[in-house]
Amino acid sequence: MAPTVRESDVYERDEEKQVASLGNNIAIQIAAGSSLKAVYKHYHEDGTLTLQHFIIFFGTFELFLSQLPDIHSLRWVNGLCTLSTIGFAGTTIGVTIYNGKKIDRESVSYSLQGSSSAKRFAAFNALGAIAFSFGDAMLPEIQNTVREPSVKNMYKGLSAAYTVIVLTYWQLAFSGYWAFGSEVQPFIVASLTVPKWTIVMANIFAVIQISGCYQIYCRPTYAYFEERMVSNGKSSFSFRNRLIRLIFTTIYIALITLIAAAMPFFVDFVSICGAIGFTPLDFVFPALAFLKAGKMPQNRQIRVSMQLLNIAMATWFSVVAVLGCIGAIRFVVEDVKTYRFFHDM
């Protein structure tokens, strides 16, 4: 039998993923709360529940899922999440095109609005959001590097992930920008108006989909701390270890929930997460790793060209990370000035 790589060993080597996971879970919880609130308002237009209530509801549900022992116990969650991803993308793309055709196309503007500085910061902020779209490829990578042969499984996982991203989220981004131009909402479902029942369905798909994503992203942090906190040599199902897990996961999710409820600025957290988490993880580190460990060609010209290309990639995306972070932080500051904490968006 081939040796199995421990889940915690993989996670320890990639502490950068924990930074990305933290920011991503904040964005996920805001998005989930927004979708749940949209469904609630469809059936109770004058209802008194706020976005913060639904963020808390979602956090409570994730706390329940967090008590499952490891990433392998989430297979049924991941399967449902995958089906919901396809359902969400298909539904939302269709409804977006339908809404776009009902809008006066001459009224749609595709240029950035505001002063020159506002446009620059908006462009910087967008860099982080674009980088975030590549981060979902981290999910199968985490799952497939926990068993051998890790390189083969990672390649298969990443290939499948980028195929899904291109066929779903990218198409959704293109159709959303075509339909609404620069006025499109960060969470595109918020831009849709008709038909109502399809919007409700898209929001339900979104909640189911990101319920699984939330768990995949928080598992690196769980594994990292459990390796140091649980009793060595004891079963993970022992009362003491279960109690430690409950306490730690409660603190983690309570922190995420508090931040998401206090500052429900979805696009800003998406951009921050993309800038400081996924840009280094997906673009900078692979280029540096190849320079350090990659098998270089014997031909000197080809070798030098590959080295220069990877140096250029690492340098360029480091600049993208810095600019994206600057833009995102600037918008967070502006949002805090405009809205009070725990604002019902």
UniProtKB/TrEMBL annotation:
TM stretches of this protein: 49-65, 77-98, 160-180, 200-222, 243-263, 269-291, 311-333
Compartment list: Membrane
GO CC annotation terms, alphabetical: membrane
GO biological process, one term: amino acid transport
Principal cellular location given in the protein's record: membrane
Top-level taxon: Eukaryota
Entries under InterPro entries matching the protein: AA_transpt_TM
Keywords: Amino-acid transport, Membrane, Transmembrane, Transmembrane helix, Transport
One Pfam family in the UniProt entry: Aa_trans
Amino acid transporter transmembrane domain location: 21-329
Record PANTHER family: OS05G0424000 PROTEIN-RELATED (PTHR48017)
Name by which UniProt lists this protein: Amino acid transporter, transmembrane
